[in-house]
């Protein structure tokens, strides 16, 4: 059975990033418009972004692919060097290409 | 403590406490993320009949977490560009558009998810596992 990331966990990570950015946006807007009347309308506009469940599921899959690719590529290098344990040096070798591919 | 913020707002300690809470929440998420990564990485290593040193897993986990945060940024920008407040599957596929193999893989998964939409929750989970086995578990990208 393939293990994957918890959807709820990935959703929580996304939400924490988005709410942080929403707060920042609100602060910026507050600094620009100091009038109290206009502020009432902006709270709705600055609601943090959300994701639908399929998008979160797909993101889980994307992150799982990232991890499995990293392990598999490092395993290839480790095997070529005749070892049977993946060490940091193997990861170092594959890291540049991995980061370019994602 | 930053003296400037203390002067500017009276509830400086409150703001700092909020920052601490936020940091704590992120650390908690990072730890949970790490646990999932350990699971996935060890399964994958076992499939390759390899051992994997814990420090490598921690490193991969931190990389993946950073990637997840970056992904959140990108997804938000894409959704807002389309005048949406909700991220959908196309935004996720767009994130991987530079890598054709990856984008194709995500597209095929997205079709499966869409097809299963009207059915019940249980059915969806069961067949998504089947689909995983049918496809190769890893996308091989030619590197030069």
Automatic annotation (TrEMBL), chain A:
A Pfam entry, by short name: CENP-X
GO biological process, one term: resolution of meiotic recombination intermediates
Sections of the chain in a coiled coil: none
UniProt keyword DNA damage present: yes
Biased composition (Basic and acidic residues): 24-41
Keyword annotations of the record: DNA damage, DNA repair, DNA-binding, Nucleus
Domain of life: Eukaryota
Protein family membership: Belongs to the CENP-X/MHF2 family.
PANTHER family registered for this protein in UniProt: CENTROMERE PROTEIN X
Protein name (database record): Centromere protein X
Lineage: Eukaryota, Viridiplantae, Streptophyta, Embryophyta, Tracheophyta
TrEMBL record, chain B:
InterPro entries: CENP-S/Mhf1, Histone-fold
Entries under Pfam families matching the protein: CENP-S
Bias kind Acidic residues: ranges: 8-24
Database matches in Gene3D superfamilies: Histone, subunit A
Chain segments carrying region Disordered: 1-26, 113-144
Keyword DNA-binding: yes
Biological process, per Gene Ontology: DNA repair; replication fork processing; resolution of meiotic recombination intermediates
Record's GO cellular component terms: FANCM-MHF complex
Keyword annotations of the record: DNA damage, DNA repair, DNA-binding
Keyword DNA damage set for record: yes
Single GO molecular function: protein heterodimerization activity
Family the entry assigns: Belongs to the TAF9 family. CENP-S/MHF1 subfamily.
Name of the protein in question: Centromere protein S
């Amino acid at each position: 059975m393939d293990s994957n990331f918890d959807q709820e966990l990935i959703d929580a990570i996304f939400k924490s990033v988005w709410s942080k950015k929403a707060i920042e946006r609100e602060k910026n807007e507050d600094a620009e418009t100091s009038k109290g009347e206009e502020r009432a309308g902006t709270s709705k506009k600055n609601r943090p972004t959300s994701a639908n469940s399929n998008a979160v599921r797909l993101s889980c899959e994307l992150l799982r692919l990232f991890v499995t690719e990293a392990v598999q590529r490092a395993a290839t290098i480790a095997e070529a060097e005749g070892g049977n344990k993946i060490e940091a040096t193997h990861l170092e070798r594959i890291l540049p290409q991995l980061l370019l591919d994602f | 403590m930053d003296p400037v913020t203390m002067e500017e707002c009276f509830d400086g300690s409150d703001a700092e406490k909020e920052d601490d809470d936020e940091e704590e929440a992120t650390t908690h998420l990072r730890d949970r993320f790490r646990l999932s990564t350990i699971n996935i990485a060890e399964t994958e290593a076992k499939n390759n009949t390899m051992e994997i040193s814990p420090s490598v897993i921690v490193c991969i986990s931190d990389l993946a977490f950073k990637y997840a945060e970056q992904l959140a940024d990108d997804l938000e920008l894409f959704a807002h560009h389309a005048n949406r407040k909700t991220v959908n599957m196309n935004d996720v596929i767009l994130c991987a558009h530079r890598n054709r193999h990856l984008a194709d893989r995500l597209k095929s998964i997205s079709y499966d998810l869409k097809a299963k939409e009207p059915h019940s929750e249980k059915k969806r989970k069961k067949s998504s596992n089947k689909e995983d086995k049918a496809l190769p578990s890893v996308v091989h990208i030619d590197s030069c």
